[in-house]
Amino acid sequence: MKKIFLLAFLISCFTAAFAQHKKFTVKVSNFQFLPKTVNAKLLDTIVFVWVNGSHTATSTSVPTGAPTFNKPINVSHKRFKYALKKTGTYNYRCNIHPAQMQGIVNVSQALTSDLTSFDVDDASVNAPLNWNTTSSHDISYFSVQRSIDGNNFTEIAKVQPDLSNRYKFNDNNAAPSKYVYYQIQTVDTKGNSQLSEIRMFTQKAEANKLITSIGPNPASNHLMLQFNADTEGSMTVKLYNQSGVFITQTQMSAYKGLNNGHFHLGDLSPGTYYIVCTLGRATEKHTIIVK
Fold this sequence. Notes:
The protein is mainly β. The protein has two domains: 20-202, Cupredoxins -  blue copper proteins (Immunoglobulin-like), CATH 2.60.40; 211-290, Immunoglobulin-like. It is built from one helix and 24 strands. It has a five-stranded mixed beta sheet with strand order 3-9-8-5-6, with no helix packed on it. Strands 12, 13, 15, 16 and 17 form a five-stranded antiparallel beta sheet that branches. β15 (179-188) and β16 (193-195) form a beta hairpin. The longest helix is centred in the N-terminal third of the chain and has 16 residues, at 2-17. The N and C termini lie far apart (76 Å).
């Protein structure tokens, strides 16, 4: 029995050591990095891919020993690859739009008992999470974590390991948001941890709300919009004065899930205005105040 256990342990170690490294794509558009948060493993690669606009991918903090980076992402520089050679947290931003465009990459060392899969059944109504591991050796617990923006996560449950290496958790109290994001943090008996990739779940019962937040309002010369999108495309935002006279419009890149967009209003006289946002068949009208 001990020989069988030792053989299984050695196989799991070998599998983890020679696991294929992944490439994670971060799309760069006006005015967001998507996804904003990436959970990767050591020796994975981040690939920044230009969609529209003129931006940079500029590190603001990296783990000790990791190289900093500052690369243009625009029509002339459409791709930038960065190898993750140190564990820790990588923070970056667009230097042209530092307030609106920031991103994070969390890099973990692969544990002996690695996750081989993690998914959320989007066809269900109570967010069933399913994940598998190579083994249960040295696992202390799994931390199930939830977010409504894909960036800030809170633990909602601890799941204990078992010999099946197959796990399931139903989130029967999902947050009141159309899109809910999940990650699994594996914690071993030595206190080491590894984050899974982030998965999104669409709540069918939630209202089909397009715009989730607008700010600042009152505004001066710009607006930040947070909005939902069921499919990839673009959202049209048109600006009108209080009398219904059209002033200007912009297009915001949209990807399935929660999105962020920026609308430059220009020099407007103080007063009441409204915007009309259209994405697919959804249209919403919102009042804004210019100070």
